[in-house]
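job 3f2a | input accepted
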Amino acid sequence: MHRTWWRICQRAQCAGRPRAAAPLFALLLVPLLARGADAPAIDTLTLAPLPVGVPPPETPGMPSDAELEAAQAVVGEILIDNQNIFNLDDPKDNYWLFRAADKLHIKTRASVIRHQLLFKPGDRYSRRLLDETERILRANNYFYDAWIRPVKYHDGRVDLRVTTRDVWTLNPGFNFSRSGGKNSTGVQLEELNFVGTGTDLEVSHTRNVDRTGSVLAVSNMHAFGTFTQFGLAWANNSDGHLHDLTINHPFYALDTRWAGGVGGVNDAQTDSLYDRGNIVDQFHDQHNNVSVYGGWSPGLQNGWVQRFSTGLTYDEHQFSPVSSWTGATVLPEDRRFLYPWVEYDLVADDFVRLFNHDQILRTEDFYLGTLATLRVGWADSTLGSTRSALIIQSTAGRGYRTDGSTLLVASDFSGRLENGVLYNGVADGSVRYYYEWSSKWLFYTALTGTKGWRLDLDNQVLLGGDNGLRGYPLRYQDGTARSLFTVEQRYFTDWFPFRLWRVGGAIFFDAGRTWGQPQLAQPSLGTLKDAGFGLRIGNARSGLGNVIHVDVAFPFETAGTTIRRAQFLVTTQRSF
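job 3f2a | predicted structure (576 res):
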């Protein structure tokens, strides 16, 4: 699970960025893209369409997985059954608008699905590989779900059916989101699955609290019929630009033996420092980063994976004043680090499928195994770095599952040791707990925390309406440490309006605070609390964002401040 180094998007428009996806509006528009698809092939099988969220049935009379593995069965024919957005055999879906959407939509090509399989005809049958392949397919935003079933056993061979369901992937139109009292808007034309190839094309113009910008981007997580990731982005912003290129072949599966990649970013933008929801400092940041790496692994052994990687990174930030800023200006110190590094990863094979936790009526793959990563690099001033430093990055995590309860623990740490002193040290930790009252009622609570040591001026530890404290303005409190406690009671309904969305609801309570007083920041206001309620709208037919949040949050502390007594938030997030 090698980390992705460069995002193929603006910092303010990264994966998981707020967007108000409108599948119904999108379905009314004719795609402007050229139509294309695989020619009919004998290895493609279209079965009776399935209801949304319902997996295909098991084939009667098939031996169990344990029996097939004990018999050393091998994979026979692989049938690709990629289903369209709507089930037209269902009278509730057999509507002119949905028929038009299915006809206009270009289904994912069978070859794109086949290239993501971890097995081929003649390989030994393994339920573990089938499960891992399902997880890989489900990770694509152009699929609603994926299932792999044995359908026939004969002469020691097992025929398999790979069933996927496409979602609507064309996003033409207007986007809107609101959090922390600020709006973000934009117009864009994005296709997540260009002519069924899995390629993401985006042309957009957005305006948010940080900048106005135009973006042209293309990416494919399975380029050239392989597991190679390719991304290219160009952005022209009101405060600078972004040029980004990534070519990466990651450790895409537990038994992957090698990985490697190269990437670079040239990014110029105005950075704003915030406190109490207001800008307290601004400066221009010219950032250049180039990195190359390679990795090797002995593969999956006795349920564990070890990975060894090494690489070279050049990372530079140059700061300068902004002429339009009239307030106090404190510039961060320029820094440039050129360093080789080595990394060790330890991963356990332990996953579980859950439903109605962070998504609405979707298969959710929760990782419960032990995960540990340590990367160490040395930047030497004699080789071009502004100063010598030992650069450290690490992560660790573990999950636990008992009857109806799931506990996830995670942490990470990064920083630089310069002459034995820690600079820009950041430690993050989180504990998330889920308890299933029933299939529709879920209790959720989370505790997260961050601690910083001698932070670079441009690296803020912020708390506000845009990162969990929903009743307060965005970037409201600045400190050198923070904590946030959240409690939610979630409810998942059977409501399926217009056969397009799944609906849920939540009532919540947040409490958080910051510690420390960075340069230019006012003293902490102590523990801040809010409570509220909201709707959760899951996209059942669209890949344009997973869950739309519509929340109303009420802060507990408003006396002597200009904070509104209620905050209205509309965001699209990856989870409930």
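job 3f2a | Residues 127-138 form the longest helix (12 residues).
job 3f2a | closed
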